[in-house]
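Inverse folding, one chain.
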């Protein structure tokens, strides 16, 4: 449907003995640009196409979606990308960029600078170095000029953030009267900082932060953005419960139209700088939940997660029953990172605790198991789930 911004008005002033048309107060439409919100399931991938042919790809979804992203870009006639942006090093944002790096020429790679020890992140950096691609870590206020009338500004960037999501590069693309705000996985804390700094976050189109999670899209922030339309990029029936009902209510309260890649597939928005057109049907409301409920039969399990320290990378479970439990076949899951630790053949006796460690200081010892030397729990919003040998979630910690 076609939306009109800065509507052209012709007002005739009829005064005795005089009829003169009022001056026109609108900007003439330009050639069309397009923003493609590519359906990569539970993840983000956004392709910006300037009228002059310059391009920018923001994220690439999970690794398994990489081939689909490449195929989509090539179907649009893209053999070279001027800019590729990795908003932050989470696997559902950078995984697919591995295929992009292997298949398409890239002029400049823009990275959050947030160091991560995951194999995917290291592989991505190795490819950038091997292909001698210009590598940029942006600062807040930096601008990328795709053409005279199309500017992409960095509203937030923090390579020193303790959390991956907090390090998200936030972008605002402006094409005459139409603007796009791309939030990555930036959470409420980043949103609050933007508002406190007086940053202009108003945008015609909002790509909601963190796939519609209630850790983002706070009421005050969404009100400040005042989007006419909001895009939710997530996978249908995802295990995180995205989009959360609270976010949907907030968007509805500002009368924003809502679209989702889960329902509509890839969403393409074209604009001439005055009007815009969204090539998709509005979101119907399927899949919104306020939380991730645990099965009723497992909530009172006697083997439980009792603590999770995301900085020290230590998760502790305890057997609160009066019987010993063999943990072989059990799993500890990092929900956000979609990473799984499989327990060995080990007996957890009544009242005893067991620590699962990860990160550079991970170790094995008495009542301590090593998961990985890589960081697992870098995200403050990364839930931990304990799954028994039957595949039932018996305990969860946010």
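Residues assigned per position:
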């Amino acid at each position: 449907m076609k939306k009109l911004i800065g509507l052209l008005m012709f007002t005739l002033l009829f005064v005795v003995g005089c009829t003169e048309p009022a001056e026109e107060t609108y900007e003439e439409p330009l050639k069309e640009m397009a923003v493609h919100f590519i359906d990569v399931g539970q993840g983000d991938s956004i392709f910006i196409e300037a009228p002059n042919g310059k391009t920018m790809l923001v994220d690439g979804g999970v690794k398994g979606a990489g081939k689909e992203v490449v195929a989509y870009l090539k179907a649009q006639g893209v053999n070279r990308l001027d800019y590729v942006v990795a908003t932050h090093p989470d696997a559902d944002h950078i995984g697919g960029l591995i295929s992009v790096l292997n298949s398409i020429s890239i002029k400049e790679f823009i990275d959050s600078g947030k160091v991560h020890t995951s194999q995917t992140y290291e592989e991505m950096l190795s490819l950038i170095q091997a292909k001698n691609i210009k590598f940029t870590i942006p600062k807040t206020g930096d601008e990328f000029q795709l053409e005279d009338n199309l500017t992409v500004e960095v509203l937030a960037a923090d390579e020193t953030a303790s959390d991956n999501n907090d390090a998200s590069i936030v972008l605002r693309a402006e094409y005459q009267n139409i603007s796009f705000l791309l939030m990555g996985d930036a959470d409420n804390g980043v949103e609050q900082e933007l508002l406190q700094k007086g940053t202009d976050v108003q945008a015609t189109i909002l790509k909601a932060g963190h796939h519609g999670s209630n850790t983002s899209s706070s009421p005050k922030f969404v009100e400040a953005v005042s989007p006419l339309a909001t895009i939710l990029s997530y996978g249908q029936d995802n295990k995180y419960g995205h989009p959360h009902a609270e976010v949907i209510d907030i968007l509805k309260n500002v009368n924003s139209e809502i679209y989702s890649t889960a329902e509509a597939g890839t969403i393409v928005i074209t604009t001439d700088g005055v009007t815009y057109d969204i090539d998709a049907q509005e979101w119907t409301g399927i899949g919104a939940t306020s939380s991730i409920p645990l099965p009723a039969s497992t909530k009172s399990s006697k083997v439980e997660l009792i603590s999770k320290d995301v900085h020290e990378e230590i998760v502790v479970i305890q057997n609160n029953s009066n019987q010993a439990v063999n943990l072989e076949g059990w799993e500890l899951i990092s929900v956000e990172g979609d990473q799984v630790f499989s327990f060995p053949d080990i007996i957890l006796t009544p009242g005893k605790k067991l620590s699962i460690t990860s990160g550079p200081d991970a170790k094995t010892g008495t009542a301590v198991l090593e998961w990985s030397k890589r960081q697992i729990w870098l995200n403050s919003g990364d839930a931990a789930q304990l799954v028994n040998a039957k595949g039932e979630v018996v305990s969860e910690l946010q």
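The first helix runs from residue 66 to 75. The helical segments are 66-75, 91-94, 97-103, 119-130, 188-196, 219-225, 245-253, 261-264.
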